[in-house]
Specification:
Number of domains of chain B: 1
Radius of gyration of chain B: 19 Å
Shape of chain A: globular
Distance between the termini of chain B: 38 Å
Largest sheet of chain B: none
Number of strands of chain A: 0
Order of helices and strands of chain B: HHHHHHHHHHHH
Strand content of chain A: under 5%
Largest sheet of chain A: none
Helix content of chain A: over 70%
Oligomer: heterodimer
């Protein structure tokens, strides 16, 4: 119950910035339109590139724009608060609360993600739907699987952002690591270019890394590229990374609290 | 009289910028990672384009090195503007926290202070990467003296256009302080649009990018001249030399918007 309360508060906190949200929806839509035309040109030249057709490609573009903020691809979200609290030393207060730090921030980040999904996710998708021919999930099962995949995408992304924020225990400032991590996230999530286009070993590597859970896996679930056991495997891949990375978060936290002197007096 | 004042402003700008570079150096690991990370983001961006071309012979009639010329020149123009004055994006934060009021009391023009504030060398990452791609693409261009002239004027004018877009659209924040991202659609969006051959877009979009948000002049028209190609959209050939006009006009419009924004500004009052 406590975690639901945390999530609701985070949802409300983010919903106070209305103009920022509108500006963001506008910007996501502009980028969606640019990339749609670019991908249409690519798939006009090669109609079966990466096993997608033109409609898949354009749908992929708008899914990417919808997911961009929901999974906080660039980094940030509630883990930025954590990094700031580590820098100032306020994290000491968080640490002696009778609630786990990871659970606290995860709940808060899920609340944030829910807000961003409903605004920055749904908003551009409507524009994309009006301007371009984008496809919907083919069955209720696909839609349900997409919802699960989406939550898992947020959890995996949260765990990585939490690890990045934790570097502030040692470096005091997370911003360098955050930018590096963002660079990898953009490239290996399939946000920049669908991973299905990545050739050979690079493609294999990209599809095995945790970032594939961010965009490529949810998008393929939406597009109905996984069916039957394959669908379970895709979701299992995300669950695997979520578990491994959340465990790593706990481990790093234990290490940090043992080794590090908290800032402040 | 006007000349020494501009020099003075430039010197103040550089002094403030140097201050921020030294401040950022207090966290050396972050400083280095930020520069490398920013280079990496843009570097991987180009790798993405490269991978795309593994599936294509050409994009709307343009080969990889022709698209690289478009990509390099657009990124370079954006990087020049972003390095010099990218901080103007944060104007909303300055308004909200009241820092703009402090800045107004100082004997340095507000725009100079805002642009130099939190100056960061990490943007050199983007600048370097863009220069490398542009340099590589340039080796495929059949150079003549006029083409060299057009190329130089392209980069300077492109920088001016983005300067104008950064300043002009950031001014929206004088009216709604938290709409930072609005400007991104035009600045980063403009750079993204122009890294592709514009003939992948419908004609109405090209007209809009020529007359409304003139990013087509950042690289598209001059690059057509550098590559010796006829305009697939059939726009007048004179446009290929008109980039400086577009740069100056965008910049002038932005300065007007800036002035009306500052006049409109009434502080947060606390």
């Amino acid at each position: 119950m406590l975690h639901v309360a945390i999530a609701t508060r985070a949802f409300r906190r983010y919903s106070t910035y209305r103009a920022a949200t509108l500006a963001g929806i506008f910007t996501n839509s502009v980028f969606g339109i640019i990339y749609s035309f670019a991908y249409l040109a690519v798939w006009r030249a090669n109609p079966t590139a990466g096993g997608y057709d033109a409609q898949d490609a354009v749908t992929y573009v708008w899914l990417g724009q919808a997911l961009l903020m929901t999974i906080a691809l660039w980094g940030g979200g509630t883990t930025d608060d954590l990094a700031e609290r580590i820098r100032t030393g306020d994290v000491a207060i968080d640490l002696y609360r009778p609630v786990g730090l990871v659970g606290w921030y995860l709940a808060s980040d899920l609340g944030r993600a829910a807000y961003h999904l409903l605004t920055r996710g749904v908003g551009p998708t409507l524009i994309g739907f009006l301007v371009f021919d984008i496809s919907l999930p083919s069955s209720p099962l696909n839609a349900l699987a997409f919802a699960v995949s989406l939550v898992l995408a947020v959890v995996v992304s949260f765990a990585i952002r939490f690890l990045v924020a934790s570097t502030a225990f040692w470096l005091l400032d997370q911003s360098g690591v955050k930018v590096m991590s963002g660079a990898f996230a953009i490239f290996f999530s399939g946000m920049m270019l669908p991973l299905v286009l990545f050739p050979g070993w690079l493609g294999t590597l990209a599809r095995a890394l945790p970032w594939a859970s961010y965009v490529q896996v949810p998008a393929d679930v939406w597009l109905g590229k996984h069916t039957g056991l394959d669908l379970l495997a895709a979701l299992g891949f995300q669950v695997m990374w979520a578990v491994v990375l959340l465990a790593a978060c706990q481990g790093v936290l234990r290490l940090a609290t043992r080794k590090v002197v908290v800032q402040g007096g | 009289m006007a000349e020494p004042r501009a020099v003075l402003h430039l010197r103040t700008y550089l002094q403030i910028a140097w201050l921020w570079i030294r401040a950022a150096w207090q966290y050396p690991t972050s400083f280095v990672l930020l520069a490398v990370g920013n280079g990496l983001i843009t570097g991987l961006d180009f790798v993405g384009l490269w991978i795309m071309f593994a599936h294509l012979d050409d994009l709307a009639g343009f080969t990889l090195h022709e698209v690289a010329l478009l990509y390099g020149s657009a990124s370079l123009a954006l990087a020049i503007a972003d390095t010099a004055i990218g901080s103007v994006e944060r104007i909303g934060t300055y308004i909200r926290t009241g820092r703009l009021d402090q800045m107004m009391t100082k004997p340095v023009p507000l725009l100079v202070q805002v642009c130099a504030d939190q100056f960061t060398l990490r943007r050199l990452g983007r600048l370097t990467q863009a220069a490398i791609v542009f340099g590589w693409a340039c080796t495929y261009v059949d150079w003549t003296p006029t083409r060299v002239l057009v190329a130089v004027s392209m980069l300077l004018s492109g920088g001016l256009v983005f300067f104008g877009l950064f300043v002009g659209f950031s001014c929206v924040q004088f009216w709604t302080t938290d709409a930072t991202e609005f400007a991104n659609a035009f600045t980063y969006g403009g750079a993204t649009v122009t890294q592709y051959p514009l003939n992948i877009f419908p004609r109405e979009v090209i007209v809009g990018l020529t007359f409304v948000i003139p990013v087509a002049f950042v690289n598209w028209y001059p690059c057509l001249y550098l590559l010796g190609r006829t305009d697939p959209a059939g726009m007048p050939e004179a446009f290929q030399f008109a980039s400086p006009v577009a740069g100056v006009l965008t910049m002038a419009a932005a300065l007007l918007v800036w002035r009306s924004g500052v006049r409109h500004y009434t502080s947060t009052g606390s």
